[in-house]
Write a structure and sequence with these properties.
Elements (H helix, E strand, L loop, with lengths): L2 H4 L5 E6 L3 H12 L4 E4 L15 E4 L3 H7 L5 H20 L8 E4 L3 E5 L2 H14 L3 E3 L2 E8 L5 E8 L2 E5 L2 E6 L8 H17 L2
Parallel strand pairs: 1-2, 1-10, 2-6
Antiparallel strand pairs: 3-5, 4-5, 7-8, 8-9
Bound molecules: flavin-adenine dinucleotide.
């Protein structure tokens, strides 16, 4: 089966494997930065764990509280999390996503905001598609394709239409099956991935 018959674009600036919150957020950021993005998601709908969560966007109130609770975490990532958290809440509001009032004591030490997480996921998909990218469900990455120097150049994917390879990728992001990673790691990891992605475009 050819790539055309399978319905996948021949190339993408960015291929994201896994359309959970992390993958979709990075895909939307890359799309806004001008990249043509393809997201492959093995489930019937995008969203991963976030799609079945209550959508409490929570964080530590300050760096000291975070370190007291997570002493072995990477301090730089922790600091980035604490510093970026308030503006991330405002950014979600700015997208027109419903955000509740701040609540205390989330996960015992945290503060948090209830957000319409399904609207946020839909927003991210729309950003990718508006920029000409694709979010393709029921399509699982089977293996990465390497060149003779060992560099990742593509991925073999299987969907309802059969199996094919997507090559000519500028950047590949793996964001598949990170759950049950603790929620406090998701946001800094997402930040790191977005920064990494933007720097290496
Ligand atoms: C019930 C529940 C409630 C939660 N509540 C909250 C909360 O209120 N607040 C909070 O901050 N966190 C919460 N969490 C945690 C949070 O939802 C997750 O940490 C976060 O959504 C993880 O996102 P992710 O994109 O990193 O991974 P995932 O959501 O795991 O996304 C990975 C995606 O990759 C796909 N995939 C896997 N393998 C392949 C493959 N080979 N090819 C293509 N696709 C593939 C999967 O189908 C999945 O959609 C909750 C989690 C659960 C399960």
């Amino acid at each position: 089966m050819t790539i055309e018959e399978f319905g996948l674009p021949k190339r993408a600036d960015v291929l994201v494997i896994g359309g959970g919150m992390g993958g979709l957020a990075a895909a939307a950021a890359a799309s806004e930065a001008g990249a043509q993005v393809v997201v492959v998601e093995k489930a019937t709908h995008p969203g991963g764990s976030a799609a079945i969560s209550v959508g409490m966007f929570w964080g530590p109130p300050d760096f000291e509280s975070l370190r007291a609770r997570v002493p072995l975490g990477d301090p730089a990532l922790g600091r980035a999390f604490v510093e970026a958290y308030p503006s991330a809440v405002e950014q979600i509001r700015g997208m027109g996503i419903a955000v509740g009032k701040q609540v205390q004591g989330v996960m015992t030490i945290g503060i948090g905001y209830s957000i319409d997480v399904r609207a946020l996921l839909s927003h991210e998909v729309a950003v990718v598609e508006k920029a000409g990218g694709r979010v393709i469900c029921e399509t699982a990455a089977r293996r990465l394709l390497l060149d003779d120097k060992g560099a990742v150049v593509g991925a073999e994917v299987r969907g309802q239409g059969g199996q094919t390879a997507l090559t000519s990728i500028g950047f590949l992001m793996l964001s598949a099956d990170t759950c049950p990673r603790a929620a406090f790691l998701s946001f800094p990891t997402f930040l790191f991935l977005v920064c990494f992605l933007l720097v290496h475009r």
